[in-house]
Structures are given as structure tokens and as C-alpha cells.
């Protein structure tokens, strides 16, 4: 199911994914990557054909039809202050988007904070976890990307909201998606740690259709709505409220929005 030779051929990295663990089934590749970081070191990646407890953000789940989607987690040691870790999920989302473009899905776009959508349907999602370890701060970047799924491979509740590379006309295999995401991630990862974060944020912003549109965002502190202005230096979303004041949303989910900026 996973063509390792094809993966190696396409992998253009020095570090990320040079050690790859391939599992038939697991609870969550993010958990495996935390363990693999201790045993195999920085840059180790884990993929699985099946996840029995695949995680989304905020306690949500991630569905993986066995063998049809990419469940990939990569473990990295942080080179930056942990307080600047907010840009990591954005780097991961942008890398996944670039991989989708390279695999032929040009219509893919970003949705804050890190979904990859095609015409409003979700192609991929990102779950980043940052922890203190005895050897310093580290992150596990988990990426779920739908690759081979047909509409029927998704559970009924996702059929109208999810898409896959195959459904968008790409003939990419799992190995292509894995190599593509890791190869796109490595330079963005380096940039997020030691390079020009402003350039990374600008590249992210250029791929998101939100700007100037009205959004409602659910946050841990309640809902907030306004016109999307920009990302701040930490990757947080800046909204202009009806009062004219600006507010910064660090974490949350865009639950409604209209192109054009008018309130419905
Ligand atoms: C995410 O969460 O989008 C992050 C998903 C990360 C999954 C990867 S797989 C490898 C690694 N190991 C893990 O255990 N996790 C990571 P969030 O933004 O919270 O979105 C979750 C929501 O997306 C769900 O509540 C569903 O509505 C929807 N969803 C679930 N599975 C989906 C799928 N395969 N395709 C599209 N949408 C899906």
C-alpha cells in the first residue's frame, strides 16, 4: 500500500522524514511520533494506514478510511522560543497546501488557522503539539490529508464537507503525498525557526481568501465576529469589530463567513 521506494525517490529533504516509521494500524501517529522522537531523534516521521483514535484539534476526531488517506506526524526539536511556536501550524498548513498544488490540485486554499480546502471542502487538517521534553522543547506536527478517498469512503456526515486529492482529479499515491508534504515542510520549518517569519506569514496570507471578508470565529472564550484584516506577527488572526476596534484571535475555528465582507 505504501511504496517506500517511490517515497525515497520523491523525498527532497535533509532531515524531515529521513527516518520514517510505517505502521499498519495505530491509535494516533502523533503519539507514535513523540515516542519516535526519543528513540530515533529529530525529524523522524511516522505514517499509518489506519488510526483507531485519530485526533483533530480541541478534542475532535480525524477520520481515516484505512489505506485511503495520509496520516503523517513528524517530530522536531524547537530552535525557537516556545512562545513563537504559533507559526508552526501555519507553516505546516502552507506546506500541505504547496504539496496539494504540486500534486495537481491548484484550487486548494488555506483557511485559518490551518485547514486546506478545495472549493470549501476540507482536503487536509493539521494538529500540532508542543511539549517540554528533558532535551528541550519539541513539536509534533500531525497532518491528515485525504488522498485516494471516493465520496463513499467518507462517513455520511463528512460527504458534503470533505474532499480528497483523487476527487479533485489528482492521481497521487500515498507515497507522493507523504514525500510532497515533508519536502514542502522542511524549508518552511527552517524559516519558522531561524528565518524570516514575516515572509512565511505573507506567503500564508497570500493563499487565504479571508482578507476583507466577514468571519465569525468560535474561540475558547466565546464567539467573536468581524472583518478579517491580517495575521499578526505570531500568526494570530486580527479582526475589525463592528465598533471599529481591532481584536486578535489566538486560537479558534472560523464557523461562518461571507465573501465580500457583508454581514449576512
Ligand atoms: C484537524 O482538526 O483538522 C486536524 C487533523 C489532524 C489529523 C492528523 S492525522 C495524523 C495525525 N495523527 C492524529 O491523530 N492527528 C493528526 P480540526 O480542525 O479540529 O478538524 C476536525 C474536524 O474535521 C472533524 O470534527 C470533522 O468535522 C472534520 N474531519 C474529520 N475527518 C476528516 C477528513 N478525513 N476529511 C475532512 N474533514 C474531516
How does this model look, in words?
By secondary structure, this protein is of the alpha+beta class. Helices cover 25% and strands 32% of the residues. The chain has five helices and twelve strands. It has helices at residues 4-10, 29-40, 87-102, 174-194, 197-205; strands at residues 20-26, 45-51, 69-77, 108-111, 115-118, 121-133, 136-146, 214-219, 222-231, 237-240, 246-249, 253-258. It is globular. Residues 28-30, 51, 54-58, 60-63, 69, 71-73, 122, 125-127, 142-144, 146, 158, 162 line the site of biotinyl-5-AMP (BT5).
- On the 0 to 100 scale, the average pLDDT is 94
Which molecules are bound besides the chains?
Answer: biotinyl-5-AMP
- C-alpha Rg, in Å? 18 Å
Strand order of the largest sheet: 1-2-3-7-6-5-4
% residues in beta strands: 25-35%
Write the H/E string, N to C. HEHEEHEEEEHHEEEEE
Helix content: 10-25%
Separation, N- and C-terminal Cα atoms = 46 Å
In this structure, how is the largest beta sheet organized? 7 strands, mixed
Could you tell me the number of beta strands?
12
Tally of alpha and pi helices: 5
> Which descriptor suits the 3D outline?
globular
Q: Which runs of at least 5 residues are low in confidence (pLDDT < 50)?
A: 260-264
User: What structural category do the secondary elements indicate?
Assistant: alpha+beta
Amino acid at each position: 500500500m505504501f511504496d517506500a521506494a517511490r517515497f525515497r525517490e520523491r523525498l527532497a529533504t535533509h532531515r524531515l522524514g529521513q527516518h520514517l516509521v510505517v505502521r499498519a494500524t495505530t491509535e494516533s501517529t502523533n503519539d507514535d511520533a513523540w515516542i519516535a522522537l526519543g528513540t530515533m531523534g529529530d525529524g523522524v516521521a511516522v505514517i499509518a494506514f489506519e488510526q483507531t483514535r485519530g485526533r483533530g484539534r480541541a478534542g475532535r476526531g480525524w477520520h481515516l478510511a484505512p489505506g485511503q488517506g495520509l496520516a503523517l506526524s513528524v517530530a522536531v526539536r524547537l530552535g525557537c522560543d516556545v512562545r513563537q511556536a504559533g507559526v508552526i501550524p501555519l507553516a505546516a498548513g502552507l506546506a500541505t497546501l504547496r504539496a496539494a498544488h504540486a500534486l495537481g490540485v491548484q484550487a486548494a486554499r488555506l483557511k485559518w488557522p490551518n485547514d486546506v480546502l478545495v472549493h470549501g471542502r476540507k482536503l487536509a487538517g493539521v494538529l500540532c503539539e508542543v511539549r517540554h521534553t528533558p532535551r528541550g522543547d519539541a513539536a509534533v506536527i500531525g497532518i491528515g490529508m485525504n488522498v485516494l478517498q471516493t465520496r463513499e469512503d467518507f462517513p455520511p456526515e463528512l460527504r458534503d464537507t470533505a474532499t480528497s486529492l483523487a476527487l479533485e482529479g489528482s492521481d497521487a499515491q500515498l507515497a507522493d503525498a507523504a514525500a510532497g508534504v515533508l519536502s514542502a515542510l522542511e524549508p518552511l520549518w527552517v524559516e519558522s525557526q531561524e528565518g524570516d517569519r514575516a515572509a512565511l506569514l505573507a506567503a500564508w496570507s497570500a493563499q487565504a481568501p479571508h482578507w476583507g471578508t466577514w468571519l465569525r470565529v468560535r474561540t475558547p472564550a466565546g464567539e467573536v465576529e468581524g472583518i478579517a484584516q491580517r495575521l499578526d506577527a505570531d500568526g494570530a488572526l486580527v479582526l475589525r469589530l463592528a465598533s471599529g476596534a481591532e481584536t486578535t484571535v489566538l486560537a479558534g475555528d472560523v464557523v461562518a463567513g461571507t465573501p465580500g465582507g457583508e454581514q449576512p
